[in-house]
UniProtKB/TrEMBL annotation:
The keyword Ribosomal protein does not apply. Belongs to the helicase family. RecG subfamily. GO terms for biological process: DNA recombination; DNA repair. This is ATP-dependent DNA helicase RecG. Keywords: ATP-binding, DNA damage, DNA recombination, DNA repair, DNA-binding, Helicase, Hydrolase, Isomerase, Nucleotide-binding. Its EC number is 5.6.2.4. It comes from Paenibacillus curdlanolyticus YK9. Residues 272-433 form the Helicase ATP-binding domain. It catalyses: ATP + H2O = ADP + phosphate + H(+); Couples ATP hydrolysis with the unwinding of duplex DNA by translocating in the 3'-5' direction. GO terms for molecular function: 3'-5' DNA helicase activity; ATP binding; ATP hydrolysis activity; DNA binding. The keyword Ion transport does not apply. Residues 452-611 form the Helicase C-terminal domain.
């Protein structure tokens, strides 16, 4: 019998009702229960009171030296205290609302106390107490602490898992390849699982954790690498016959020369597109590094090779902007571009759908709906997604079900350290734009208190006097879009009043698409000099004449978001500025402002952000496609992640990985993963 085939109900003490609650926690089988690892330990190891700091939680053992005194107050509330001798010290032990223990506090009896130590009053506020003469005891151990809720209490989880180990511990198998176990000197899985739940000491817990973290990261890596190797053996991708001369000619028509970074990345992408296997590539580059033109070249190459492309973006504003810039870039080349968003009229939409189906339109730009719905391409060869979370496995399979297997290029402006990206997105190839176009001056960032708004307004006026433009960003208050919008409207009125010579535009989420377009267009054409906006402008908007961005209540934004916003300026030849208006209450808030004023390198900002927020928040799990690990931490366990990646790569590159019987178990396990659903192997 395999553990993952035994329902959790088989564990003694797990009732039908508890089983239901366990299901809600994702625990269905005994295997799931045993893999329900503690996220920390409660330390009940006995300590010497002289080493304990004031306010610390501690477990100690001693003898009762006075009869308990009970003081009752309020409704059934009681404070009970007695003297306990611990290592020749006399300590006052205090219980709240535990008067029922009174009879058990007998003079001379040995007692174990866990609680908070008050060094000044020589007093211990007891949270748990035990009597060693009663036999079994927690004291002296590290007790696992599980994530619990509902009627699943900590004691229940501890008992259920303890019981599962007793009943089924013998069935725990080692599924890692033996050569890896010996290479990394890992302890056997059975031992690791036992110890992670019941470590005798910290060192033991560490050994168990090391084994299980490695295992978790190895499976993750093996899955990605195997998927990638599978795609590479496939020849179901589009092999674009791309002529280098076509690309050179196109590049020569651009109003600027490509940066070395852009050239390198264009090469990587077109090389990939020429191959028969499907491309799955991540293009990361700082805001303003020129990702759009790279995407345009790839789309152009696809069109010239006789296929179609789609550019997916998160917002309509961005879709319209891309439409304009691609139309400009493709002007006179014969490459046709069509826009598909929610606000395209029914008639126009019909035309575009027909154009895509017949192949008269080469490139479709739009939001996510673009690749789903009733949209039919004559020959979709390349999908580019911009500034969005990555193009998930699900969407890929939606396409495959439509009989399509386009190359995929995902662009992101939240760069993560390259090594981390390669490791985290093991199923993708990574291209990075490191440099910004020549002649760009670094954006100067200033941090000022809200009381200095008058000077901020003067700054805006000065920029406008020189013909430049400014954004003023009001924060998004999650709980209330209405408040947000009101903020923006108020700010708009204030600025219009303070700077009567300027035309001030307004852009927020409650406006209709037509109104938003008009506001963006007017700002783009310098008909308005100031644009007061909520974060709708965060991603991708490109108005090179804007040289100032003022961010109100900047402490409400995360680092990466601030950096994105700042990237709206510094897009032309003029010196640009970013003013953060903030009076942060928290230490991390101040830290964020400091980071922003010290660097405008997106990679550096991302590194700091990762450090300040931790990987869970930073990657936002589901959105980014990075899984939540049970035990592992992508940043803290980075070295292990890297080792696991190398091991998995080595294994999957063995020529007989998909056939050797030695790997049958590994493959079996892989095929159960949703990533491989619908894939044919062998
Ligand atoms: P992002 O990477 O943030 O999407 P964009 O693609 O919007 O950046 O490019 C920012 C600006 O830089 C645009 O105005 C674009 O036309 C311009 N640009 C892109 N590449 C170059 C280059 N090699 N030289 C000069 N300007 C460039
Ligand atoms: Mg962009």
């Amino acid at each position: 019998m395999k553990l993952d085939q035994i329902p959790v109900r088989q564990v003694k003490g797990v009732s039908a009702q508890k089983e239901g609650e366990l299901h809600a926690f994702g625990v269905h089988t005994v295997a799931d229960l045993l893999d329900y690892f503690p996220f920390r330990y409660e330390d009940y190891r006995l300590r010497d009171l002289t080493e304990v700091k004031d306010g610390e939680k501690v477990t100690v053992q001693g003898h009762i030296r006075s009869l308990p005194a009970v003081a009752r107050f309020g409704r059934g509330k009681a404070r009970m205290s007695c003297k306990v001798e611990i290592d020749h010290f006399l300590v006052t032990a205090v219980w709240f609302n535990r008067a029922f223990l009174q009879d058990q506090l007998v003079l001379g009896r040995e007692i174990t106390l866990t609680g908070k130590w008050d060094a000044n009053r020589h007093q211990l506020t007891v949270s748990e107490s035990e009597f060693p003469d009663r036999g079994k005891s927690r004291s002296g151990s590290l007790q696992p602490v599980y994530s619990v809720g509902g009627s699943l209490t900590q004691p229940f989880m501890r008992k259920a898992i303890g019981q599962a180990l007793i009943q089924f511990g013998d069935l725990i198998e080692d599924s890692l390849p033996p050569q890896l176990i010996s290479k990394h000197r890992l302890i056997p899985r059975q031992e690791a699982v036992m110890r992670i739940h019941h470590p005798e000491g910290a060192a033991e817990g560490q050994g168990a954790r090391r084994r299980l973290v490695y295992e978790e990261l190895f499976w993750f890596q093996l899955k990605l690498q195997a998927y990638r190797s599978l795609l590479r053996t496939r020849s179901d991708g589009m092999a674009f016959p791309i002529d280098s001369a076509v690309i050179r000619d196109f590049a020569a028509r651009l109003p600027f020369e490509l940066t070395d970074s852009q050239k390198k990345v264009v090469n990587e992408i077109t090389q990939d597109m020429r191959q028969k296997h499907g491309m799955n590539r991540l293009l990361q580059g700082d805001v303003g590094s020129g990702k759009t033109v790279v995407a345009a070249i790839a789309l152009y190459a696809a069109a010239k090779a006789g296929h179609q492309g789609a550019l997916m973006v998160p917002t309509e504003i961005l879709a319209e902007q891309h439409l304009r810039s691609l139309q400009r870039l493709f002007d006179g080349t014969g490459v046709e571009v069509g826009l598909l968003t929610g606000s395209v009229t029914a008639r126009k939409r019909r035309d575009i759908l027909a154009g895509l189906q017949m192949g008269m339109i080469d490139i479709a730009i739009g939001t996510h709906a673009l690749i789903q719905d009733d949209v039919i391409f004559r020959s979709l060869g390349l999908v580019v997604t911009d500034e969005q979370h990555r193009f998930g496995v699900n969407q890929r399979s939606v396409l495959r079900r439509k009989g399509l297997s386009p190359d995929v290029l995902t662009m992101t402006a939240t760069p993560i350290p390259r090594t981390l990206a390669i490791t985290a997105f093991g199923d993708m190839d990574v291209s990075t734009l490191r440099e910004r176009p020549k002649g760009r001056k670094p954006i100067k960032t200033h941090w000022t208190k809200p009381s200095a708004m008058d000077r901020v307004f003067e700054f805006i006026q000065r920029e406008a006097d020189q013909g430049r433009q400014a954004y003023v960003i009001c924060p998004l208050i999650e709980e209330s879009e209405k408040l947000d919008v009101q903020n923006a409207i108020d700010m708009h009125a204030t600025i219009a009043m303070s700077l009567p010579k300027l035309k001030v535009g307004l852009l927020h989420g409650r406006m209709t698409t037509a109104e938003k377009d008009e506001a963006m267009r007017a700002f783009g054409a310098n008909e308005t000099q100031v644009l007061v906006a909520t974060t709708v402008v965060e991603v991708g908007v490109d108005v090179p004449n804007a040289t100032l961005i003022v961010i109100i209540d900047a402490e409400r934004f995360g680092l990466s978001q601030l950096h994105q916003l700042r990237g709206r300026v510094g897009r032309g030849e003029h010196q640009s500025h970013c003013i953060l208006v903030a009076d942060p209450k928290s230490e991390t808030g101040r830290e964020r402002m400091k980071v922003m004023t010290e660097t405008d390198d997106g990679f550096e900002v991302a590194r700091k952000d990762l450090e300040l927020r931790g990987p869970g928040d930073f990657f936002g799990t589901k959105q980014s496609g990075v899984p939540e690990f049970k035990l592992a931490d992508m940043v803290a366990d980075f070295e292990t992640l890297e080792e696991a990646r190398e091991d998995a790569a080595e294994l999957t590159s063995e020529p007989d990985f998909w056939t050797a019987s030695a790997y049958a178990d590994l493959r079996q396990r892989l095929l159960k993963d949703p990533l491989f659903q619908g894939e044919q192997i062998d």
